[in-house]
Amino acid sequence: MPVYDNIGPGYSRYRCADPRIVEKTVNTLGLAPPGILADVGAGTGNNSRAIADLGFHIRAVEPSEAMHRQAISHDAVDWYRGTAEAIPLPDLSVDGVFCILASHHFSSLASAADEMARICSTGPLVWLTFDPRMAETPWISDYFPEIWERAFAIAPPLEGVCRLLEIHTRRHVTIIPWSVPHDLQDRFMAAGWRTPELYLDPEVRAGISAFALAGQDALDDDLERLKKDIESGTWSARYRHILDRDAIDWGYRFLKAGYVLHDRGYF
User: Residue 108: inside a domain, yes or no?
Assistant: First the structure.
């Protein structure tokens, strides 16, 4: 059963498409509308709709029925029930592929890469993913150590991911750093880096898989300590060095599998 069949009933309320992520995704793809793009691990389709609004035609691929039920229809977004490891699209059927913060849920990165290359033989493949080993000042590890340990478990080192993508897509992979803005509209795990009170909201936590899968009982003590430190000013005093920042590097990266590799170099 897909993870979000269990934890995603209110997902679309807080996991909104952030325009900066949308812009970065489209710019990294480097394609002009009206191209056909596959959104693999589309969730409720918030990013699919935002990119469709720019003139693209989207094939949204998502395994979770809970996510499908929350999807809002869009004339340029077609939905497909399926996984990244078995994408229900024909060979050579799209001009590009994007995957926004979904690859950590794939059962096999290699199979997912094979499938993306199958449906898009020469076009760009763009992933937004996360490597906690690259994070700057990840204070969440101080309050939620088990959550942070889980991030290391589910997010393999980026170097290995890039090598895997190159082997299975036969494309050159470029790593593009991306800093998390303080007013992020998509409430994923790093969204509250400057506003820690976000993590006290159970509905926000329910849309973040690492928190939702941990369960409330496992988090009670951690949440209580964070709440007390916010109210007492301890949190602000401890992390004052980030409070005037507009964005921070918490290990999020865009990966672009671009030029197709051949025996004699790049195509």
Answer: yes
Residue 122, in any domain of the structure: yes
Residue 45 confidence class, pLDDT cut points 50, 70, 90: very high
Residue range of the domain that includes 69: 3-136+154-188+249-261
Q: What DSSP assignment string belongs to 123-190?
A: S-EEEEEE-GGG-SS-THHHH-HHHHHHHHHHS--HHHHHHHHHHHH-EEEEEEE-PEETT-SB--TT
Q: How many beta carbons lie within 10 A of that of residue 235, not counting itself?
A: 21
Residue 228: inside a domain: no
Residue 146, domain member (yes or no) = no
Residue-wise pLDDT tens digits, 54-68: 999 999 999 999 899
Q: Residues 99, 127: contact at Cβ < 8 Å? A: yes
Mean pLDDT, the chain, whole residue set: 91
Contact (CB, 8 A) for 257 and 171: yes
Q: What is the pLDDT of residue 262?
A: 58
Helix ranges (H only) for the chain are 3-7, 11-14, 19-29, 46-52, 65-70, 109-119, 140-143, 145-154, 158-169, 202-206, 209-214, 216-232, 234-238
Q: Please report, for the domain that includes residue 119, its CATH number.
A: 3.40.50.150
Q: Which pTM value belongs to this model?
A: 0.92
- Top-confidence residue, 14 or 43: 43
Band of the pLDDT at 137, cuts 50, 70, 90? confident
The structural domain count of the chain equals 1
181 - beta bridge partners? 247
Distance between CA atoms of residues 54 and 25, nearest Å: 12
pLDDT score at 3: 59
